[in-house]
Amino acid sequence: MVHNDFVTGIHDTSVEPRDLAGWAYVLDEVEAGREAVWREAARVAEIGIRLDWREDDHDRITVTVADQQTTRLAISLHMEHGWIDEQRALLDRLRTAWAHLIPGEWGHTSSRGNEG
Question: What is the pLDDT of residue 116?
Answer without folding.
Answer: 43
